[in-house]
Design brief:
It is built from one helix and eleven strands, in the order E-E-E-H-E-E-E-E-E-E-E-E. By secondary structure, the protein is mainly beta.
Amino acid sequence: QMQLVQSGGGLVQAGGSLTLSCVASGSGRILSSHGVGWFRRAPGKEREFVAAIRWSGNTYYADSVKGRFTIFRGNAPNSVYLQMNSLKPEDTAVYYCARTRAGYSRSPTEYDLWGQGTQVTVSS
């Protein structure tokens, strides 16, 4: 009964930073052997890919966040983080972490387990 539990969202001014966490219950090897991605859904928009990390440690980013966001695995088992710097109002969204069935993907259809989502609001 593994689940992904997210935290770290909140309200921040433009230019500020937030770090989102994604912690899984269950086997400690799950997040180290599966790809993990972050998605977001802004008001009036469809869900979009933000960042991903695969078993090899390779990371991938949407062009809109490249250079500002960093995805990384935590030292504790079953933990993945998204560090968000230089936040912009257009980053405002509900953010979700998710696990791929295998490897890396930018498509939400390849993810089989999702966190509950956390709100990030960036004011101007």
